[in-house]
Amino acid sequence: ETYSDKVKRDERFKKLEDSDLKFFESVLKDKNYLITNEDDLDFFNEDWMRKYKGQSKLVLKPKTTEQVSEILKYCNEKKLAVVPQGGNTGLVGGSNPIFDEIILSVANLNKIRSFDEVSGILKSDAGVILENADNFLAEKGYLFPLDLGAKGSCHVGGVVATNAGGLRLLRYGSLHGTVLGLEAVLPDGTIYSSMDSLRKDNTGYDLKQLFIGSEGTLGVITGVSILCPARPAASNVAFLAVSSYEAVQKVFTGARRELSEILSAFEFMDGTSQELTRRYLKLDYPIESGDYPYYILIETSGSNKEHDDEKLETFLGNAMEEGLVDDGVVAQDETQLRNLWNWRESLPEATAHWGGVYKYDVSLPLKDYYKLVEATNQRLSERGLIDLDDDSKPVVEAVGYGHLGDGNLHLNVAVREYNKEVEKALEPFVYEWIKEHKGSISAEHGLGFQKKNYIGYSKSDIEIKMIKEIKNHYDPNCILNPYKYV
Ligand code: FAD
Ligand code: 2HG
Ligand code: ZN
């Protein structure tokens, strides 16, 4: 994408000069912590989907919170725009510059600070990779209360900045509940810290909440304190084929009732998302009889394998008997369990590798959850834009999957190339449809650059005004992540 038709560079921002580079070198004390080489800059300028690309000439990789503070203070005084970046796995173009903003990567803030084995409180630098944090916790018998397909690259700070939801929100809740404290640097260099907060603390405004989901627009998160649950000793995964959306909803209510406290994930996938995954991974369907309109992945996590197995068996037996589930597999060992999760976690790649993808990350009341995929397919068919096997059509497939247990659908329109006609067919149609059905235009990925003009579909004028007031108070020069949703 080019941005010239969407947004203009704000000329209040200063352009980078040699004197600025000299200052940053003096702060970071090592040339390796500044990236200025064109080839190396590419990774930071471009997003995971290769959809958004900026032209930053500088990446800064500080090692300490104090260095972040010195950098921001200077940028604020000089009016140099800055994009905070974590693992760069965000899906809304929020982590990349639009023009020549400086990229402030927290990747070198990568130490676990402490872990309390009694309370389960983990204190970590923001740049620790999620999977590394979870592996550290695994050794102590604990679990990071969030898991997602990008765990090998995304950061603890990045997921907090986006308020990512992921695969087990159903069980462990949102980061708004599990994050106990944060350390963040404000645009003027002030270091805010609530890292020592305990589980309960009703002493005025809960300021950390402002940063959770702020998408790098209010401050740079440098530390996270988070409450971690005990790692479940027993896990089960079942992969089920279902013939109607009506039955999917019944399986969900049944799972909540019968699996109750051991239910830890309830993931939905439509048949066409499976077909794209099959073609992408070049593997057979997990369920040999293949080709059903809907699939569900259910995970249980508990402390007693026998008890969990029995509960799951009874639940699945009942669902089969009632004709809700047509076929299914239950992982028999750790490898099969991992394979079923890998299949599910490959969906974002499977929809993105055809040339491009339009992603819509939506919250909807469950009764309307899948209707959006049907309405989108109908619209693209009416316009003659879609065909799985005809390479002359721009759209490969419009598929739906997501965290049904949280009412979160991922509508993915896989395209052979980014195409204005397809974009016009999709937007604002999708956003209008969501608003009409009382949904949210972003359940978990945020607004970033992609949805900057659409916030009004999910927030009222008063809410938008309050958001702008907070932004203007803490970042009056608007140096942090400009051109994005605020
Ligand atoms: P980045 O992509 O680098 O940044 C994301 C945003 O946060 C940007 O606006 C950036 O400016 C800001 N930011 C990053 N770090 C900081 C910081 N330290 N301080 C201030 N601002 C910061 N999301 C879900 O919610 N659920 C999923 O299940 C899920 N699965 C995914 C699967 C795949 C394969 C991929 C590629 C992405 C997935 N995502 C999912 C998207 C999700 O937003 C990111 O993976 C994650 O939240 C971003 O973390 P990150 O460290 O890569 O942040
Ligand atoms: C997931 O649930 C992620 O896998 C990505 O949130 C969703 O690809 C998407 O649209
Ligand atoms: Zn998701």
TrEMBL record:
Superkingdom to which the source organism belongs: Eukaryota
Cofactor(s) required for function per UniProt: FAD
Catalyzed reaction equations: (R)-2-hydroxyglutarate + pyruvate = (R)-lactate + 2-oxoglutarate; (R)-lactate + 2 Fe(III)-[cytochrome c] = 2 Fe(II)-[cytochrome c] + pyruvate + 2 H(+); (R)-malate + A = oxaloacetate + AH2
Boundaries of every FAD-binding PCMH-type domain copy: 52-231
Gene Ontology terms describing biological process: lactate metabolic process; malate metabolic process
Subcellular localization: Mitochondrion
Record EC number: 1.1.99.39, 1.1.99.40
Keywords: FAD, Flavoprotein, Metal-binding, Mitochondrion, Oxidoreductase, Transit peptide, Zinc
One of the Pfam families matching this protein, by short name: FAD_binding_4
Any GO molecular function: D-lactate dehydrogenase (cytochrome) activity
Listed GO CC annotations: mitochondrion
Purpose: Catalyzes the oxidation of D-2-hydroxyglutarate (D-2-HG) to alpha-ketoglutarate. Also catalyzes the oxidation of other D-2-hydroxyacids, such as D-malate (D-MAL) and D-lactate (D-LAC). Exhibits high activities towards D-2-HG and D-MAL but a very weak activity towards D-LAC.
Family, per entry: Belongs to the FAD-binding oxidoreductase/transferase type 4 family.
PANTHER family associated with the record: D-2-HYDROXYGLUTARATE DEHYDROGENASE, MITOCHONDRIAL (PTHR43716)
The name this protein goes by in its record: D-2-hydroxyglutarate dehydrogenase, mitochondrial
Native organism: Hyphopichia burtonii NRRL Y-1933
